Amino acid sequence: MHFGSASAIPQVTSPAAIKLGAQGLVLTEMAVASIQLSGFGSGSALAAWMASALKVAPQPNTFVSVAEGRVDIAAIAPATWLMSGVAADLDSIVASARVELEEVAAITELSDGRNVFLQLEGEPAATVLSKYIDIDFEGGALAPGRCASTGIH
């Protein structure tokens, strides 16, 4: 199983992916940049900007990819989206519309080294994750294209 798209996002080469036991699990630290967009008020103006500028309309608890799959946008809270991906692509999206974006959303750069994106792959990934977070992976609650916030920070 693979959770999150991040397929086109370059992986950190050091440290390398870690194989976890004989279970076929691989844990990889991902090299990503992140920007949080928090819409003012109901967030409808930010949603309209996203629909116009990025040609996407993320719904609650979903993620979509833009910039040819190099940037993921996850709806993480009401009127709040987390954009993660290649730093240059994020910078170009935000820089091209900064004045317009500042009218409709708070823009928070989160790529200061305190965030770590991890990718856990392998057949038992859902079982391992279900021991630590309260999401029903096996019951289809987290189908492809869906995202969820957890209590692990």
Question: How would you describe what is shown here?
Answer:
With 153 residues, this protein is α+β, with helices and mostly antiparallel strands. The chain is built from four helices and eight strands, in the order βββαβββααββα. A five-stranded antiparallel β-sheet has the order 4-5-6-3-7. Strands 1-2-8 form a three-stranded antiparallel β-sheet, with no helix packed on it. It starts with 17 loop residues before the first strand and ends in a 23-residue tail after the last helix.
Structure keywords:
single chain; 153 residues; alpha+beta; five-stranded antiparallel β-sheet; three-stranded antiparallel β-sheet; 4 helices; 22% helix; 28% strand; globular; disordered N terminus
